[in-house]
Amino acid sequence: MTEGRTGSATTLAIGSVAVALAVLALKAVAWRLTGSVALMADALESIVNVAAATAALVAIRYSSMPADANHPYGHAKAEYFSAVLEGALIIVAALLILNEAWGALANPHAPEQARLGLAISAVASAVNAAWATLLMRRGKALRSPALVADARHLWSDVVTSVGVLVGVGLVALTGILWLDPLLAALTAANILFSGGRLLRESVGGLMDEAVPPPTLERIRRIVASEAEGAIEAHDLRSRHAGRFTFLEFHLVVPGAMTVRESHDICDRIEAGLKAELQNAVITIHVEPEGKAKHKGVPVL
């Protein structure tokens, strides 16, 4: 299953590089035809897409490596580094776009061959939208932070591209030249927001953020229902690392219970949790009843 997951994620990452290169070529042609600063900004973001897709491919290949002596928990967190890099590249692209927009405000000009340039840019945006939809669905199914981050970035690109298309069309129709650099600046602002959000989420993964409260509540219910024969579970801790969810807690059992009986309870709990959470890594520390804290998860 792991090999299949890795192969599928790698194929998608390679596809992302190919799509990013194709979209970049289309947007570069649209920009060269029109001379529009807004379309230049759109093309510049596609350069970031190529770099980010390449980084995601490298990270996915590295994260699939098995655990070793130096990395006993595996290499899954490598995908978060890719997402952090992508967020940083997005911010750099936004700053470059703002610089170009500022210069164009002082010397605006009408776009040339606007109809052809906009048509080519529209095709590029349609390709991006279709790929982003596929990437988001498969990335979530494979629990790949790198693929999900790439999909979110592409959706941000699609939204800004649509805004740019509408705006440049208005420039061509109305002759209001300052709309072009204004749209470039608005594109940069949206990219900055997207990059900041991506950085926050990625850093959260690197910092071992706990699972979301709804997921934690489901975990507590499963432990309570599957631990029949035990007394309580306490000190429940969780964290994400790429596609893996790590869980650990203490399970208090009657002092007279045999090792086999307590082990059977642990097996039931693990089976229930793994049915709910894909790729769960579970550690249960069994304790005698004298260690009960009378808090945490009471057994039903």
Tell me how many strands there are: 4
CATH level 1 name of the largest domain? Mainly Alpha
**Biggest β-sheet, characterized?**
4 strands, mixed
The CATH architecture of the largest domain is Up-down Bundle
Name the CATH superfamily classification of the largest domain. Answer: Cation efflux protein transmembrane domain
Could you say what the CATH topology of the largest domain is called?
A: Alpha-lytic protease prodomain-like
The mean pLDDT is 81
SS element count, helices: 8
Query: In oligomeric terms, what are we looking at?
Result: single chain
Radius of gyration: 25 Å
Contiguous runs where pLDDT drops below 50 for at least 5 residues: none
- Side by side, the strands of the main sheet go 3-2-1-4
Structural class: alpha+beta
Silhouette: elongated
Kindly state the percentage of residues in helix. Answer: 55-70%
Order of helices and strands: HHHHHHHEEHEE
Structure report:
With 300 residues, this protein is an alpha+beta fold. The protein has two domains: 2-206, Alpha-lytic protease prodomain-like; 213-298, Cation efflux protein, cytoplasmic domain (Alpha-Beta Plaits, 2-Layer Sandwich). It is built from eight helices and four strands; from the N terminus they run H-H-H-H-H-H-H-E-E-H-E-E. It has helices at 2-34, 37-63, 78-106, 114-142, 145-174, 179-206, 213-226, 259-276, and strands at residues 232-241, 244-253, 280-288, 297-298. A four-stranded mixed β-sheet has the order 3-2-1-4, with helices on one face. Helix 1 runs antiparallel to helix 2 (37-63), helix 2 runs antiparallel to helix 5 and helix 3 packs parallel to helix 5. It is elongated and about 85 Å long. The two termini are 34 Å apart. The mean pLDDT is 81.
